[in-house]
Design goal:
The longest helix has 22 residues, at 193-214. The protein is of the alpha/beta class and 286 residues long. The protein has 9 helices and 9 strands. The chain is 38% helix and 20% strand. It has a 6-stranded parallel beta sheet, with helices on both faces. A 3-stranded antiparallel beta sheet has the order 7-8-9, with helices on one face. It binds adenosine monophosphate (AMP). Residues 29-30, 36-37, 39-40, 146-147, 149-150, 173, 175-176, 183-186 line the site of adenosine monophosphate (AMP).
Length: 286
């Protein structure tokens, strides 16, 4: 496995692969790898000749006061996990390498970023889009792999690629969960034992909402209230948002008439966890 810390090194490896007619896949990550990331890497390996994984805790997507400084960093374990999976290129740049001076150019996607994390983390998606655009220019992948865990991010990046004609196919990968249903996340490492036990309420509440939709409930307010009540039973949980949005522009709906996303963000202590589920009213029980 090649490990590149500079943009030039990474470009050399991927350019050589492209010249040899090999397809290049990219899995962008912030490291602290878990089975969710590994599922993206495996999929990339199965579909591309060269698999590149980027490992970069991107400072421009964190607001002051967020967890940039204490975000889990585990380079040695991440490197070993990538090597074991047969990753060809690990791109692990420093912040100085990616942002050598003041950044005057940003990518901003409108509308899809109005709600959910776009509303409660102002500037977050500008940081994400800008770093993903940079990674796409550096690696020039044929395909890039993103998790449905970050459903809004996936939609925003897909739109950026379409609007700005990036020659890359975005591949969506399903959410990987722990046995009890909690979506895997690097931020789960912040949870103490009691918080970890409580956090299962997120996936349970989303599942409960899915069952209600299957049983004919399509009123967004009622569904959100059910989820809110279930989560509020956990004393450690502090809700950031619970929303039901359509899946193109991520705008809130009042009635679920087509497949919609129920998305939430909830704090347990200082850990802000997100999760989502797609509900489809045409999947109602007869
Ligand atoms: P992160 O390192 O958290 O920025 O995530 C890097 C990529 O892994 C993103 O595309 C995430 O959506 C994806 N990812 C993170 N957690 C999961 C999960 N539990 N299941 C599937 N994909 C995930």
């Amino acid at each position: 496995m090649d490990i590149a810390e500079t943009i030039d090194q990474a470009r050399q490896t991927t350019a050589a692969a492209r010249r040899a007619g090999r397809t290049v896949g990219l899995v962008p990550t912030m490291g602290a790898l878990h089975e969710g990331h590994l599922s993206l890497i495996r999929r990339c390996r199965s579909e591309c000749d060269l698999t590149a994984v980027s490992l970069f805790v991107n400072p421009t997507q964190f607001a002051p006061g967020e967890d940039f400084d204490r975000y889990p960093r585990s380079f040695a374990a991440d490197r070993d996990a990538c090597a074991a999976l047969g990753v060809d290129l690990l791109f692990a740049p420093s912040a100085g390498q990616m942002y050598p001076g003041d950044l005057l150019t940003w990518v901003h996607v409108n509308r899809i970023t109005d709600h959910l994390c776009g509303a409660t983390r102002p500037g977050f998606f500008d940081g994400v889009c800008t770093v993903v655009a940079k990674l796409f220019h550096i690696i020039q992948p044929d395909r890039a792999y993103f998790g449905e865990k970050d459903a809004q991010q996936l939609a925003v990046v897909t739109r950026m690629v379409a609007d700005l004609d990036f020659p890359v196919e975005i591949r969506a990968c399903p959410i990987v969960r722990d046995a009890d249903g909690l979506a895997l996340s690097s931020r789960n490492r912040y949870l103490d034992l009691a918080q970890r036990r409580s956090a299962v309420c997120l996936s349970r509440a989303l599942e409960q909402a899915r069952r209600l939709v299957a049983a004919g409930q399509t009123e967004a307010t009622a569904l959100i209230e059910t989820i809110r009540t279930a989560i509020a039973r956990e004393p450690q949980a502090r809700i950031d948002y619970i929303s039901i949005v359509e899946k193109e522009f991520f705008q809130p709906v009042t009635v679920i008439e087509a497949p919609c996303l129920i998305a939430l963000a909830v704090y347990f202590g200082t850990a802000r966890l997100i999760d989502n589920i797609t509900v489809d009213p045409s999947n109602q029980r007869p």
